[in-house]
């Protein structure tokens, strides 16, 4: 099963782990009429942060036998858009980044994996540079194993990524319902402007369908819950939590169900992904006013 092979193509507006909404903490006063604007701004911040770390998890989960001399990920095939089912027509079928593994001996842990994008590596219109460094305590598909990721000069387009991202397999012993707890403490800086965002929180990803066919991902369905908080360089803070679990099927590009509860100053907003039908729509409700948005 390939949970983040399916999630990788969730683009900016598809928020898998939670939506963060800003609050003007440094203003002397904030009125309810300002809150929808802060919500819109915070969605932009959260979009970039969420996509960044789903991208990282896709690759931490994808380190396979051919790459590392061990099946240390959740599924085979390091990603960044190079999965055959997700590749953009016309893109090269070879990697423009290198992978190093220390030690490479099979069954020897901890194991350090470095993805090095050098001074620039473009895949599907996205340019990455620098290094992603992940240390695995054991194979990530084994309950109890942990993968700790840090960054060395890593950028995605104009965004410089710093911080620490921890993924732990928290599947119950004897269960085939895979469960992963993900903790993030990060800072993302836009190089062209100097604007930054910090992001922290814990989310849980749990498989709810397709558990009996580990080598057949197309019947997989995952549920996401969690809470986040953060701050940006404008001095605004935010927080969010899952009201109803977010549901994402491998065969659907978008989240199709679930509700996020969002708090902005004294305003409570929701983002509703629908009733389970696979489509590119979600509904934001702020101060009793609803608006349908498109998920790219």
Task: Please provide a written account of the structure.
The protein has 296 residues and is mainly β. Helices cover 12% and strands 44% of the residues. It has a 15-stranded antiparallel sheet that branches.
Based on the model shown, name its key terms.
single chain; 296 residues; mainly beta; 15-stranded antiparallel sheet; 3 helices; 44% strand; globular; disordered N terminus
List the domain count as a whole number. Answer: 1
Helix content: 10-25%
Number of strands: 15
Largest sheet: number of strands, sense, barrel closure:
15 strands, antiparallel
The low-confidence parts are 1-32, 76-92
Q: Judging from the principal axes of the Cα atoms, what is the shape?
A: globular
How large a portion of the residues is in β-strands, by DSSP E?
A: 35-45%
Q: Figure out the total of helices.
A: 3
Spatial gap, N to C terminus = 24 Å
Q: Name the structural class.
A: mainly beta
List the secondary-structure elements in sequence, H or E. HEHHEEEEEEEEEEEEEE
Mean pLDDT: 77
Rg over CA atoms? 19 Å
What does this entry show, briefly?
The protein is mainly β and 296 residues long. It contains three helices and 15 strands.
Describe the SSE topology:
Elements: H1 3-7, E1 22-24, H2 35-60, H3 65-68, E2 98-102, E3 111-116, E4 121-123, E5 126-136, E6 146-156, E7 159-169, E8 179-190, E9 196-209, E10 221-232, E11 236-249, E12 257-264, E13 267-275, E14 281-286, E15 289-294
Antiparallel strand pairs: 1-11, 2-3, 3-5, 4-5, 5-6, 6-7, 7-8, 8-9, 9-10, 10-11, 11-12, 12-13, 13-14, 14-15
């Amino acid at each position: 099963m390939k949970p983040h092979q399916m999630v990788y193509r969730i683009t900016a507006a598809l928020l898998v782990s939670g939506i963060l909404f800003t609050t003007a903490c440094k203003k002397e006063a904030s009125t309810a009429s300002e809150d929808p604007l802060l919500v819109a701004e915070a969605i932009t911040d959260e979009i970039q942060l969420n996509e960044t770390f789903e991208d990282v998890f896709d690759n931490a989960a994808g380190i396979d036998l051919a790459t590392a001399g061990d099946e240390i990920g959740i599924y085979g095939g390091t990603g960044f858009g190079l999965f055959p089912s997700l590749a953009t027509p016309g893109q090269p079928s070879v990697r423009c980044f290198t992978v190093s593994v220390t030690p490479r001996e099979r069954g020897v842990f901890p194991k350090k994996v470095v993805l090095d994008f050098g001074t620039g590596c473009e895949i599907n219109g996205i340019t990455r540079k620098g290094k992603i460094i992940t240390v695995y305590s054991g194979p990530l598909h084994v309950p109890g194993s942990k993968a700790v990721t840090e960054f060395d000069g890593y950028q995605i387009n104009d965004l410089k990524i710093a911080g620490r991202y921890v993924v732990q397999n928290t599947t119950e012993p004897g269960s085939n319902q895979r469960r992963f707890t993900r903790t993030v403490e990060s800072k993302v800086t836009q190089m062209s402007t100097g604007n930054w965002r910090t992001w922290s929180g814990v989310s849980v990803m749990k498989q709810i369908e397709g558990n009996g066919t580990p080598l057949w991902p197309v019947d997989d369905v995952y549920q996401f819950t969690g809470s986040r908080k953060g701050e940006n360089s404008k001095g605004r803070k935010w927080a969010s939590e899952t009201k109803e679990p977010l549901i994402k099927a491998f065969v659907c590009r978008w989240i199709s169900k679930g509700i996020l509860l969002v708090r902005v100053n004294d305003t409570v907003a929701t983002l509703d992904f629908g009733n389970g039908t696979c489509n590119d729509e979600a509904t934001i409700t702020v101060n009793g006013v609803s608006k349908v948005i498109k998920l790219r």
